[in-house]
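so ive been stuck on this for like two days lol. basically i have the seq below and the ligand is zinc ion, smiles is in there too. i just want the complex predicted, nothing fancy, no docking runs or whatever. if the output looks off dont worry ill sanity check it later, just need somthing to start from for the group meeting slides
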Amino acid sequence: MTERAVEIDVRPDTSGMFQVGATDAQKLDTLAHDYGFDGPIEMLEEYVTDSLCPGICMHPACSYSTEVEPDCEAGWCEECDAGTVKSGMILAGVI
Ligand SMILES: [Zn+2]
């Protein structure tokens, strides 16, 4: 009963519509640093109550990031011209 930390369960994504070269965890880490956080947990804690949260393009060669709805799994990437942006909340398995 002592643990009050937000549990971040990073799951392997086996249901993806495309192959990715980077893992969800790596993308999440990149995203957190893009937004100036020390790591994903700090970022998620900051955005957990917001209506938007940072998301990142899952294409291996792209690291476009933008704010999306927390349950966004196929947000628009302006670099790739495709719906490849996933929210950090999804990446972290929070949602
Ligand atoms: Zn992209």
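DSSP finds three helices and four strands in the chain. Confidence is low (pLDDT under 50) at residues 14-21.
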